[in-house]
Amino acid sequence: MRYVGTTEEWDGTRAGVPAFTTYDALLGYTSGPWTWRLNVNNLTDKTTLLCNGGWCVHGDGRRATASLAYRW
């Protein structure tokens, strides 16, 4: 779980960005020298707004990353 608090009055515009919470998940399995992982960021695909110094961008949507590793 990631929480970003309210941002208020950036760059003198008196605009505010509400707080938001996003959820991440990790599923992993290890067997012998093999490790498999599935990471999912922003599990609920929540639309977020990130502002800094007067510039605002939309946050990342849901993203899944899978990996497979072999330990020598």
Descriptors:
72 residues, mainly beta, 3-stranded antiparallel β-sheet, two-stranded antiparallel sheet, 9 strands, 0% helix, elongated
Q: What features would you describe in this structure?
A:
- This protein has no helices and nine strands.
- By secondary structure, it is an all-beta fold.
- The chain has one domain (2-70).
- The strands form four sheets. Strands 5-6-9 form a three-stranded antiparallel sheet, with no helix packed on it. Strands 1-4 form a two-stranded antiparallel ribbon.
- A hairpin with a 2-residue loop joins strand 7 (49-52) and strand 8.
- The chain is elongated and about 55 Å long.
- The two termini are 33 Å apart.
- The mean pLDDT is 88.
Q: Strand content of the residues, in percent? A: over 45%
Note the overall shape: elongated
Helix content: under 10%
The oligomeric state of the chains shown is single chain
* Unreliable residue stretches: none
Mean pLDDT: 88
Topology readout:
Elements: E1 2-4, E2 7-8, E3 16-17, E4 20-22, E5 25-31, E6 34-41, E7 49-52, E8 55-58, E9 63-70
Antiparallel strand pairs: 1-4, 2-3, 5-6, 6-9, 7-8
